C-alpha cells in the first residue's frame, strides 16, 4: 500500500507529494479516497427502499454514500424498518435527502451524529407534507448546505445541529435556510444560537429564512439570562437580560424603560423604534446580533423619532434579514442626514456587507454623503452670489 502511494506520488509530480497532510480528493466521488470510508461501509445506491435495503451497510457506524442517501416517495419501508436499518449509523459521509416522503418525522435518523457533505453537498428536508418535526436529536456537526423547506413542520427538534467546515474540504460557504413550513413553525433560541455560532455560516442566502422563535421553555439552558419580550411589555421586562426572544418594539412611553436594554447582546427577533422622544440609541451599546426571521419586516426600523439626533450601535456585528433593505431609518431628526458617519458606522460594523441594505430616508450611505456635499455647494454658491451683490451695491453707492 505504502509503495503504491509513493509510486502514485512519483507519477503525479505534484505539490501534493510534499504535503502528506493534505488529503487527496477525487473530485466527483471523494468518498472513495476518504480514509474514514471503510470498504464494506458504502451505500452504493441512492434511494433506500425494499430493493436496496439489503445492500445498506447496516452494521457500520460510518456510512459513505457517494450517490447520496435518499429517503423519498419511492421509499416503501415503514418507520420501524427504517429505524432498524439506520440505527447504527452515527456518521454519514455524503448528502442526505428526505424528500417528498410520507413520514411524520425523521426520527429514524435520531442516532445520526454527523453528516459530512464536503461542504458542497446538501442536507435537504423538503416537501414532506406530513412531517411535523424533524427530530434528529443527536445530529450535531453538519458540513453541508442545509435546506429545510415546504414541510408541515411546526418544530425542528434539532437541538444540537451546527454547521462546521468539513475536515476534508477547505472551500465553499456553508449555508442554511428554513422556509415555508407550517404557519406555527418555530425555531428555538438554542437552535438559532447553534446555527449562528460560526460567523462564516450564511443564514440568509436568499433572504428567506423565515418563521418564528418558539416561546422560551423551562428547559431553556442558555448560559446567559434570556428573556421573552413576546409576552411582556418593556415596562414589565426584567433587567439584565442578555438575550431576548421576540420582536422588540420601543414606542412612545417606553423611553423611561430603555435602560433595561443596556445588557442586551442578542435579539432573536427584529427591532422597531418608533415615535419616541429618544435623542440617542446609547442604551443599545452592547447589542451585537439582531436575528430577525419575521417575514417582510426590516431587521432594524427606526422611524418618526423627531428628537433622535445620534444613532450608534457600536457592538453590532451580525444581522439576519428577510427583506432587501434590512436597516431603515426614516423620518427622524434632520441631523441624522447631515452626518454620513451614522450610516457608515453601521456598514462598518457589519463588515460593509450591507451597503445596499442600510438606508436613511431611502438613501444608501453614499447618497446621504453626496446630498450633504450638494447642500454645502449650494450654500457656497449662495454665498458667492451674495458677495457679487455686495460688490455691485458697493460700486453703485460709492
Ligand atoms: C503543507 O501544509 C502545511 C500545513 O498544512 C502548509 O502550511 C504548507 O503551506 C503546505 N505546503 C505545501 C507545499 O502545500
Ligand atoms: C451485523 O452484525 C450482526 C451481529 O453483530 C451479524 O449477525 C450480522 O450478520 C451483521 N450483518 C452484516 C451485513 O454484516
Ligand atoms: C464537531 O466540530 C467541532 C468543530 O469543528 C470539532 O471540534 C468536533 O470534534 C466535531 N465533533 C465531531 C463529533 O465530529
Ligand atoms: C482553510 O484555508 C484557510 C485559508 O486558505 C486557512 O486559514 C485555514 O486554516 C484552512 N483550514 C483548514 C481546516 O485547513
Ligand atoms: C414550567 O415550570 C412550571 C413551574 O415550575 C411548571 O408548572 C410547568 O409545568 C413547566 N412547564 C414545562 C413545559 O415544563
Ligand atoms: C418624552 O415622552 C415621555 C412620555 O412619552 C414624557 O413623559 C416625557 O416628558 C417626554 N420628554 C421630553 C423631553 O419630551
Ligand atoms: C453619538 O454618540 C456616541 C456615543 O455617545 C458618541 O461617541 C458620538 O460622538 C456621537 N456622535 C455625534 C455626531 O454626536
Ligand atoms: C468598510 O469600508 C470603509 C471605507 O471603505 C473602510 O475604511 C473600513 O475599514 C471597512 N470596514 C471593514 C470592516 O471592512
Ligand atoms: C417621511 O419622509 C419622506 C421622505 O423621506 C417624506 O416623503 C414623508 O412625507 C415623510 N413622512 C412624514 C409623515 O413626515
Q: With helices defined by DSSP (H or I, 4 residues minimum), what is the helix count? A: 5
Share of β-strand residues: 15-25%
Backbone structural class: alpha/beta
Can you name the CATH architecture of the largest domain? Alpha-Beta Horseshoe
Give the N-terminus to C-terminus distance in angstroms. Answer: 107 Å
Count of domains? 2
Overall 3D form: elongated
CATH fold naming of the largest domain: 24 nucleotide stem-loop, u2 snrnp hairpin iv. U2 a', Chain A
What report would you give on this structure?
- It is a single chain.
- Helix content is 17%, strand content 18%.
- The radius of gyration is 28 Å and the shape is elongated.
- β21, α4 (341-349) and β22 form a beta-alpha-beta unit.
- It has 2 domains: 33-210, 24 nucleotide stem-loop, u2 snrnp hairpin iv. U2 a', Chain A, CATH 3.80.20; 226-371, 24 nucleotide stem-loop, u2 snrnp hairpin iv. U2 a', Chain A.
- It has a 5-stranded parallel β-sheet.
- The longest helix is centred in the C-terminal third of the chain and has 33 residues, at 365-397.
- It has 398 residues and is α/β, with parallel strands linked by helices.
- It starts with a helix and ends with a helix.
- 34% of the residues are buried.
- Residues 1-17 form the signal peptide.
- It comes from Caenorhabditis tropicalis.
- Pfam families: Recep_L_domain.
SSE diagram, text form:
Blueprint: H1 2-12, E1 62-64, E2 69-72, H2 79-86, E3 91-93, E4 96-99, E5 114-116, E6 122-126, E7 141-143, E8 145-149, E9 162-163, E10 176-179, E11 186-187, H3 189-195, E12 212-213, E13 226-228, E14 243-245, E15 248-250, E16 266-268, E17 271-274, E18 289-291, E19 300-303, E20 318-320, E21 327-330, H4 341-349, E22 358-360, H5 365-397
Amino acid at each position: 500500500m505504502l509503495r503504491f502511494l509513493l509510486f502514485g506520488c512519483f507519477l503525479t509530480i505534484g505539490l501534493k507529494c510534499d504535503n502528506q497532510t493534505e488529503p487527496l480528493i477525487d473530485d466527483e466521488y471523494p468518498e472513495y479516497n476518504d480514509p474514514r470510508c471503510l470498504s464494506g461501509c458504502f451505500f452504493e445506491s441512492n434511494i433506500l427502499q425494499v430493493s436496496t435495503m439489503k445492500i445498506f451497510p447496516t452494521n457500520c457506524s460510518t456510512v459513505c454514500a457517494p450517490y447520496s442517501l435518499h429517503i423519498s416517495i419511492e421509499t416503501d419501508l415503514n418507520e420501524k424498518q427504517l429505524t432498524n436499518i439506520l440505527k447504527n449509523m452515527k456518521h454519514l459521509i455524503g448528502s442526505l435527502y428526505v424528500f417528498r416522503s410520507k413520514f411524520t418525522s425523521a426520527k429514524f435518523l435520531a442516532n445520526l451524529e454527523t453528516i459530512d457533505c464536503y461542504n458542497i453537498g446538501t442536507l435537504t428536508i423538503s416537501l414532506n407534507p406530513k412531517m411535523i418535526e424533524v427530530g434528529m436529536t443527536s445530529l450535531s456537526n453538519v458540513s453541508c448546505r442545509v435546506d429545510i423547506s415546504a414541510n408541515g413542520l411546526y418544530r425542528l427538534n434539532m437541538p444540537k445541529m451546527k454547521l462546521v467546515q468539513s475536515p476534508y474540504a477547505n472551500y465553499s460557504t456553508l449555508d442554511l435556510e428554513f422556509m415555508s413550513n407550517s404557519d406555527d413553525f418555530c425555531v428555538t433560541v438554542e437552535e438559532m444560537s447553534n446555527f449562528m455560532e460560526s460567523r462564516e455560516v450564511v443564514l440568509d442566502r436568499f433572504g428567506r429564512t423565515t418563521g418564528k422563535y418558539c416561546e422560551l421553555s423551562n428547559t431553556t439552558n442558555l448560559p446567559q439570562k434570556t428573556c421573552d419580550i413576546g409576552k411582556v411589555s418593556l415596562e414589565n421586562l426584567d433587567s439584565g437580560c442578555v438575550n431576548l426572544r421576540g420582536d422588540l418594539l420601543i414606542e412612545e412611553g417606553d423611553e423611561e424603560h430603555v435602560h433595561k436594554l443596556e445588557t442586551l447582546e442578542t435579539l432573536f427577533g427584529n427591532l422597531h423604534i418608533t415615535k419616541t422622544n429618544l435623542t440617542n440609541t446609547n442604551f443599545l451599546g452592547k447589542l451585537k446580533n439582531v436575528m430577525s426571521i419575521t417575514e417582510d419586516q426590516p431587521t432594524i426600523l427606526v422611524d418618526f423619532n423627531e428628537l433622535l439626533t445620534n444613532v450608534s450601535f457600536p457592538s453590532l456585528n451580525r444581522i439576519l434579514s428577510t427583506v432587501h433593505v434590512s436597516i431603515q431609518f426614516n423620518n427622524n431628526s434632520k441631523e441624522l442626514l447631515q452626518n454620513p458617519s451614522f450610516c457608515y458606522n453601521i456598514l462598518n460594523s457589519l463588515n460593509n456587507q450591507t451597503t445596499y441594505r442600510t438606508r436613511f430616508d431611502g438613501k444608501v450611505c453614499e447618497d446621504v454623503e453626496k446630498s450633504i456635499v450638494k447642500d454645502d455647494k449650494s450654500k457656497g454658491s449662495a454665498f458667492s452670489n451674495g458677495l457679487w451683490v455686495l460688490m455691485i451695491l458697493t460700486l453703485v453707492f460709492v
